[in-house]
Batch of 2 targets.
Target 1
Amino acid sequence: MADFRKSGAWRMLMIGVLGFASGLPLALSGTAMQAWLTVDGLDIATIGFLSLVGLPYTFKFLWAPLMDRFEPPWLGRRRGWLVLSQLGIAATLALMSRTSPAHGIQAFALLAVLLSFLSASQDVVIDAYRTDVLAPQERGLGSSLGVFGYRLAMILSGGIAMVWADPVSGSGLNWNGIYLLMAGLMLAAALVSLLLVPAVPAGNVAPHSNARNDLKGFVAVLLAVVVGYQFTSRVGAPLADAVLSPLFGTAPASAANLASPPNPDQKKWVDLLTLLIGMAVTIPLAWWAARRARFETLNRSLGNYFSMEAAGAFLALIILYKLGDAFAGALTTTFLLKGVGFAQAEIGVVNKVIGIWLTIVGALAGGALMMKLGLFRSLLLFGVLQLLSNLGFWLVAVSGKGAWGGFSLPPFDWGLVALHEATAVDNLLLFAVSIENLTAGMGTAAFVAFLMALCNQKFTATQFALLSAFSAIGRVWVGPMSGVLAASVGWPAFFLFSTVMALPGLLMLCYLRGRIQALDVPRGALPADD
């Protein structure tokens, strides 16, 4: 048994378990929490406001350098933060299980924010651990197993938990009991991390820096972000509205026109310009604050990354690689409901019951193929497949509902998942969603492996958090543009355009071919775990 626990198979198993631990708390501060608040009778405005508890996931890169720099006593840098964050999540869920949102919303909201912070911290250390412990030839399979565990946990906490809580067809558990059960699962995950997860290689040590300066630097960067946010909301948003209002033939927001309904397309573009203004101010301000306060771990991490050849081109590839996929996915549900006329139940069955499992299959298949193809060829093949998958929705747009016939999915009850009434399933819809989910799973496995390959093991928590933040930029950009474009040119042309938008990422990938192949070093013996 001791020998097996040193093997690559055991390492992969633990990566899957950590992926499960990473995915479990996400819905518990998101969709599952919203269901609990709704059942408890809270108004929609309060529920909408509480969606802000997820903000720590966006800003986790701010404290990631501290998780690179500081090492909890006795347990080591990665294992220590892993166990502490998981114990914190378990304790927070247990406390939430003893509260009632209807009678103590302030305490519940504070616990929800704490849950998001601890969960985001766990994500930082799991991403860093996976990057540290996997050999180059294992990154593809390791990332796919992480996605597998993550998706399974989201199915449990975000889907099956709602079935359990259903007063008619559920298992009799209320949300308090479900959160207590999830706390027990996170406690079990902490025990696994403490006793069974392999240690990182002995040479993987924290960077040396002045601890006092790092703490001062963190506070300085945090204050810079707060100042940037205040500037964005108080100056950037009105400025963006004033600049764009003439283009839409409206007056800027003021007391004179508050009674008129806002133009939804204008609001999307104003939000985008506001975001760009905020980034243009906040990023240089935070960089200046980090330099002035001598935030050594962050500064050295950024310096280490940008000392790499073609660092800027790699950032461009990170933004562009999934841009076409993001364009097509931005309005898929709206397209299927309003553009084609599919029923909600049909979309739900195909997307949630069938589609999410196909994403898992795609991720596992992508990881297995990466072991044969290597990093560059996998990114290229899966990128081309992602491009072609957009044409599936184009085919739905030009052919329409029922073009390929369909079938009726009979009711079923598998205990964990059930369908109470027969539901029609369109063959063309099933084809388009299946291809999209399979290729998205493959592309995600290769993309995560690519991010891991770019990280230096002294700064993996910081660099992976920053690189993954850059990967979200594309999704932010496409929001306003996709709605305006679809309304202007129609759905068939929109999906053709989304296909074309996948090309810049593939061209950048080909441009960086030699450098990406250099990241994918030949197979060799793993350093012994210590």
Target 2
Amino acid sequence: MGKLATIDIIIFLIYFVVVASYGLWIYKKKKSESTGSKDYFLAEGSLTWWAIGASLIASNISAEQFIGMSGEGFFVGIAVAAYEWIAALALIIIAVWFIPIYLKNKIYTMPQFLERRYNKSVSLIMAVFWLFLYVIVNLTSILYLGALAIDTLLGGEHLHGIMIALLLMALLIGLGGMKVIGYTDVIQVAVLIIGGFATVYMALQIVDQRINGAAVGNALAGFNTLINEAPQHFKLILEKPTTTTTTLEMPQNLEVQKYVVLPGLAMYFAGQWIVNLNYWGCNQYITQRALGADLKTARTGILFAGFLKLFMPVIVMLPGIAAYVLYSKGHLPGFNGVKDGAYSAILGFLPVGLKGLAIAALTAAIVASLAGKVNSISTIFTLDIYKKYLKTDATEIQMVRTGRWVIIIAMMVALAFTWTDVLGIGGEGGFTFIQKYTGFISPGVFAMFLLGMFWKRTTGTAALVGVILGFVLAIFFNSFAVGIFGKETWMYTAFTYEKLENGVVHTITEIPFLINMGWSFFITIIAMILISLAGPKVNPKAFAIDATMFKVDNRTLVLIVMTLLLLTALYVRFW
């Protein structure tokens, strides 16, 4: 296995055997209890709060975080941690206000929510669109970035073999259904956290050794060195560049590129909230873990995940900053400076034994996300398309069998798209690729869900217009607004910068995509309200909302307060 020592291989194999054995044990244990479709797709009533929380983290933290977010940490710094830290706050909102509505109305899939609240047309359109998004954007990026990272560690000659191996591992777990996924995710997240923190600890020691000349590296000294050597990488809020047009020769060129990805304070009033609330609250891939539980269990699990999110930047972002400091001081001679290679460059420093643990952690994140994603794809297709339109009299056994075939087909499609990186995921930058292209539909989808939950007057026509308008507006702001309205308006500021790719200089003019999302969402909301005002004062399909649904017990309140206090401390420290 290339550069891995025997002990590294043994550690990795132990991880594989433990996860596979535990998954098989769970499958056999639970199979005798229930074999229905809801049990297979949702693990109805089977997941504990800690299993839900762990599964949420394991499904969320994958290749795009380890590779993509470390890359953004290398390029931008701690500002990218906003995606993780605001997620903690978003999960509180989801747990308190969103989940009670789903559970009270017995919602099992997001298309089902849209059909119950609006109509079948909206539900079918979004079911097809979600399937396309999950397979073509999410599944492919997880697979490509993960395989690329592991391949780099093994010498760069095994990319396709690693892709196949990752899919086969995910297949073993995914075919077992949500129970197997949920409980194996507990092991996956434990390996992910232990391996992740071990990697960060060693990286900080290496920084202390290489930069300060310490004989035995000290992790705390290494962290202080990062702050001293790269103070600009420890600013949560990026300042708006003073110039809107730059070239490669200008020092402001990098500042503009960073601001376009993370537009300072403005993103907190625009797309950052839409990204997180849509991802955590209106996303089958995520909410599915809680939809089969009771309210107390679901809430606690979601809040537990939110608490863990506060610590994720240490694992997924800090290695990127360490790579930046080492690279800027000439201590990463084999690294070419491409941001998505930063995490792999750090792993190359790890000693024998720890490298195997780090690869196990990375593999755990990738496999958990792949398995969770294909389960969501399978759930939407089977429950919202196959059962409703293709075979309305399908038995429970036929639905489960269909779901398993969908998992296999989805993996084959993802493999076909990633075999030669048809989508250009590597060139865009993995984390940015996912956020940007998911962001095209997020404004309309989130507007449709938000008004559908909390405004009884919202109509099906408004929902259909909203999801289409949100997508059209996102495309408009991304590709056409600057050409029509210019670079500087009261709504936005566009930036022109130069970027060197494969020896070719590209001139790019764009509005920060988080700003695009904010305006797309705002205009879509206004349009949906105006259309709904022409309808009845109370839509007969509106959900009944009882204020008691949103009350929380003392234990839940304590967990919320703890999360908010820690989040406040982090923002005060790194503002």
